[in-house]
């Protein structure tokens, strides 16, 4: 890891350490904007990438950690949480809710807690990889650790 990390990555690293996660944050030389590019860099299945997708659920932020092998069914998510509408958030909404930019949103390290749903499909992988607060960074965790550190709810994200 470089000597000086982006402040968002430092914040994420501190939260991970507080929760006892011991996996090292991986810093890529280039951004990994898709699950496929991250999986290729890591040498893992695309399904082991935990995409952090922020949605606008009736005006409130909703973070969905979904397997890179899945698409989020927003109608299913709205039914699941009892929202009238769940739609993809704007970049400004994402930054306001998480303090991080699209492409590097971590499941933790936000200014305030964000309601989080975790794709049950991720449980099929011993190690999953999530963004660490910047588009060039990821960290390893188990499915159970992701639920624990986010206070997330396990859900099906597609029909």
UniProtKB/TrEMBL annotation:
Q: Which Gene3D superfamilies does its entry note?
A: YbaK/aminoacyl-tRNA synthetase-associated domain (3.90.960.10)
Q: Which InterPro entries match?
A: YbaK/aa-tRNA-synt-asso_dom_sf, YbaK/aa-tRNA-synth-assoc-dom
What Gene Ontology terms describe what this protein does at the molecular function level?
Answer: aminoacyl-tRNA deacylase activity
Q: Which CDD domains match?
A: ProX_deacylase
Which residue ranges does the record assign to the YbaK/aminoacyl-tRNA synthetase-associated domain?
A: 30-148
Q: What is this protein identified as?
A: Aminoacyl-tRNA deacylase
Which superkingdom is the protein from? Bacteria
Organism the protein comes from: Planobispora longispora
